[in-house]
Design a protein that fits this description.
One of its GO terms (cellular component) is M band. This is Fibronectin type-III domain-containing protein. The chain has 684 residues and is mostly beta strands. It contains no helices and 55 strands. Strand 29 and strand 30 form a beta hairpin. The chain is flat, with a radius of gyration of 57 Å. The two termini are 95 Å apart. 22% of the residues are buried.
């Protein structure tokens, strides 16, 4: 035990230098000094005590004159472990004159059983603690009565064990106002009602719940947003604290969500009872869509039923009937999918379809479609445009034609081409395979015979009427100028030679290409002063190296395709200069915007890019501003304020660079001047 004491009222005229502590057992008359040395201070811890024995203590003061008289003996105190205080009390019921509190037992009982509790109360805000119970409290709840309405109180609890040890008070409760308690409604149900309630068809199901609240709540049953009413099939029973709902002879539509709602001034509570009646499934979820309708077939699509009858859907059954008949015929059974193609329909007949879901309890209710007529949604296409002759030889012609004005609602899958000899009355089919292009080469013609041609279009609905016939054409070789060689390009250059290549002409003029002629001329010479640089019999391939050229000399080159009738010439050349003048806009102290127009002559091919350069007129050095510019405008920056600049532009195609286009000189400065001086200042 740790004991403490106060200093003597009189120190004898000399300061107290220490204390001596003595103790004795309560039933003994002999005091024993337990402080081995002089105790400095007013506290002393006594050890070596015997558990459960009551001890008394006294203290003797000592000054320079000696040891004084002993103090009065302390109250007898048992040597016991202390009891922990109980838990903080909390209110469990409040009314206008009484409050019921509850607390938890001490964590440690001091080694002896807790035999009772003492409850103390205090009026707020400044009341003192007074005892609230006059009999021993054994439980951990207590009702304090005789309180004043609308007053606030605090409560605390002390524990006592069988050895007589009393704990310190618990933490006081939160302030509690004494007034009638309002308890929000509560609904308590059996655990089986917290999951889905499964009921077989034909059975009775009963829903029940206990209800609590202060004041007593009112109760109502609802389903699908509507109040449930008493009928001969469905009964509702209610008492003050219970609610029942009983349904007899259950069928699938009796299932669903039943909601019990309890309401009072403190609020409301509700519980949802999910009831599923195990029965045949409901109808599949609509609509039953009929799509891709043709004269012989259609496609049905539906969704699984919202109510599966409490069992897995095993399969679906499809039936059909003609609208003029009452009898349904089976289309498909044991379908595992939600889509099916119905076939073997009769063209022009009107049909209605229905789908049923099947579970282990049987076939469910049907979902019906709208009536449909089995007919194609498309018609035969219009006839193609009049065929034109684009090429003729002694045994073949090439035909071209335009697509029909309407494809009849279905894609054109084939064109049929027919021919007729002028000396015959019979039309003969020309193509054995499907033709989807708008041109066709008809072969195996008899030389010198005259023919006319016509074309049919075909889609899913059938073959169109024939196109108007083409004019008669005689099967004979016709020689024309060949087309120009395609895609001319420079492959390599040296100081004295150029290697170039090209593609064969798309059109040979009706006769085989026999070779190519290459010519060159200097840009400054007349346009008709061309020099042939190819062999006398022409170039047989599609590439050639021109030799014996002067270094750094520009050349213009012609490549000509030759057949037995004539030649066609194409010119390969560098582009002309960009078209001036060079426009200079948006001049500032460090940038200008320049623009120009493309060359009037592009050298026979696309301009790849432009090269823009600038020069400070105080020097002779040109600097590149942009080397791969695709547009005809650029903002040139990084100029030195006050300096004068010139710009030049070069166009470039695959054959080389154009002559230069040079701008006028421009000074890099703002287009405005410094402001003039303000007026003479004066006193305001």
């Amino acid at each position: 035990m740790t004991i403490g004491w106060n200093e003597p009222v009189s120190d004898g005229g000399s300061e107290v230098i220490g204390y001596h502590v003595e103790r004795k057992e309560r039933n003994s008359i002999v005091w024993h000094r337990i402080s081995k040395a002089l105790v400095i201070g007013n506290l002393f811890k006594s050890t070596g005590l015997e558990d459960g024995v009551a001890y008394e203590f006294r203290v003797i003061a000592e000054n320079i004159a000696g040891i004084g008289k002993p103090s009065k003996a302390s109250e007898p105190m048992l040597a016991l472990d202390p009891v922990d205080p109980p838990g903080q009390p909390v209110p469990i019921h409040v009314s206008k004159n009484a409050i019921t509190i509850q607390w938890t037992k001490p964590e440690y009982d001091g080694g002896f059983k807790i035999t009772g509790y003492t409850v103390e109360k205090r009026d707020l805000p400044a009341g003192r603690w007074i005892r609230a119970n006059f009999t021993n409290i054994i439980e951990t709840t207590f009702t304090i009565s005789g309180l004043t309405q609308d007053e606030s109180y605090e409560f605390r609890v002390l524990a006592r064990n069988s050895a007589g040890a009393v704990s310190n008070p618990s933490d006081p409760s939160d302030p509690i106002i004494c007034k009638d308690d309002i308890e929000e409604p509560r609904i308590m149900v059996d655990a089986k009602f917290k999951d889905i309630v499964l009921v077989k068809a034909g059975e009775v199901f009963k829903l029940e719940a206990d209800v609590a609240g202060q004041p007593l709540p009112s109760m109502v049953w609802t389903k699908d947003g509507k109040d449930v009413e008493n009928t001969s099939k469905l009964q509702i029973k209610m008492t003050e604290l219970t609610a029942f709902l009983i349904n007899k002879d259950s069928v699938r539509r009796d299932g669903g969500e039943f909601i019990l709602t309890a309401t009072n001034v403190g609020g409301f509570a509700k519980h949802v009872f999910n009831v599923k009646v195990l029965d045949r499934p409901g109808p599949p979820k609509g609509p039953l869509t009929v799509s891709d309708i043709s004269a012989e077939k259609c496609v049905l699509t539906w969704n699984p039923p919202s109510d599966d009858g409490g069992a897995n859907i095993e399969h679906y059954v499809i039936e059909k009937r003609e609208s003029s008949r009452l009898a349904w015929t089976n289309v498909a059974s044991e379908l595992q999918v939600n889509q099916y193609q119905v076939t073997k329909l009769l063209k022009g007949n009107e049909y209605i379809f229905r789908v049923m879901a099947v579970n282990k309890y049987g076939v469910g209710e049907p979902l019906e479609s709208e009536a449909i007529i089995a007919e194609n949604p498309y018609v035969r296409p219009d006839p193609p445009q009049t065929p034109e002759i684009t090429a003729v030889t002694k045994d073949s012609v090439v035909l071209c034609w335009g697509a029909p004005a309407s494809n009849g609602g279905s894609e054109i899958t084939n064109y049929l081409i027919e021919k007729r000899d002028r000396i015959s009355l019979r039309w003969v089919k020309c193509n054995k395979r499907n033709v989807t292009d708008l041109h066709f080469k008809v072969s195996a013609l008899v030389p010198s015979h005259e023919y006319e041609f016509r074309v049919f279009a075909e889609n899913a609905a059938g073959i169109s009427d024939p196109s108007p016939s083409s004019p008669f054409v005689k099967a004979t070789d016709a020689l024309f100028k060949p087309g120009p060689p395609g895609n001319p390009r420079i492959l390599d250059t040296t100081s004295s030679a150029i290697t170039l290549a090209w593609n064969k002409p798309v059109y040979d003029g009706g006769s085989e290409i026999t070779g190519y002629i290459l010519e060159t001329r200097l840009p400054e010479t007349e346009e008709d002063e061309w020099t042939i640089v190819s062999p006398k019999d022409g170039v047989k391939g599609t590439s050639f190296t021109i030799t014996n050229l002067k270094e750094n000399q520009e050349y213009k080159i012609n490549v000509s395709a030759v057949n037995s009738e004539d030649i066609r010439i194409v010119v390969l050349d560098k582009p002309g200069p960009p078209t001036g003048p060079v426009n200079v806009d948006e001049v500032t102290s460090d940038s200008v915007t320049i623009s120009w127009k493309p060359p009037e002559y592009d050298g026979g091919c696309t301009i790849n890019n432009y090269i823009v350069e600038k020069r400070d007129t105080s020097t002779t050095n040109w600097q590149i501003v942009a080397a791969n510019l695709a547009r005809t405008q650029i903002k040139a920056g990084r100029l030195k304020a006050g300096s004068e600049y010139q710009f030049r532009i070069t166009a470039e195609n695959r054959y080389g660079k154009s002559p230069l286009l040079v701008s006028e000189c421009v000074v890099a400065q703002y287009p405005y001047k410094l402001p003039g001086p303000p007026g003479t200042p004066f006193l305001q």
